[in-house]
Every structure is written in C-alpha cells, then in structure tokens.
Amino acid sequence: MATYEYRCRQDGSFDVTLPIGTAGPSVRCPRCGAPAGRMFSAPRLGRTSAALREAIDRAERSAERPDVVERVPGPRPTRRSPNAAHARLPRW
C-alpha cells in the first residue's frame, strides 16, 4: 500500500492510501465531494517521533555548524546521597 497526496481547492490537501500504481489523477474530496487533483510529493518511507526527528536534525546541523565552546567546563558537582550506606560504594 502507498499513501498518495491530493489537494482540494476548497478544503486543502488530504492523503489516500491505495495499492501501489492504482492512484488516479483525481479523486473526490472526502469533505466536500469536489474533484481533487493528485500532488507529487516526497515519499513517506517511515515515521519517527518528534523527539527522535529533532535529535537527528540536531546531529546533522552539528556536522556543519558545531556549537563553539567558549571555555572549558568546570568539574561536575558531586551529589551526596542521604543514605550513609552509599558512602561505602566504590567511586568511578
């Protein structure tokens, strides 16, 4: 199955899922019933969550325009657990 995009002059664009190769040049708009022409758009091969998409975009941007560090970061603050038994655990 493939997803095809059509645009109605009155209601805008909408998607239709049909078997590959069976999409016609126009279909009826599901809202108003007027003929809607097929649009040619990029294929939708996969869907990712917004968080994953943002992480991928950020990684691609950093390849060409990395963030510039003004100074060396200081030591990380140490957090102490209120549990006294945790003090005897090995430190990494």
What does this structure look like?
With 92 residues, this protein is of the alpha+beta class. It contains one helix and four strands. It has one helix at 50-64; strands spanning 2-8, 12-18, 26-28, 35-39. The protein has a four-stranded antiparallel β-sheet with strand order 2-1-4-3, with no helix packed on it. β3 (26-28) and β4 (35-39) form a beta hairpin. The longest helix is centred in the middle third of the chain and has 15 residues, at 50-64. 3% of the residues are buried. The model has no long low-confidence stretch (mean pLDDT 86).
What keyword list fits this structure?
four-stranded antiparallel sheet; 4 strands
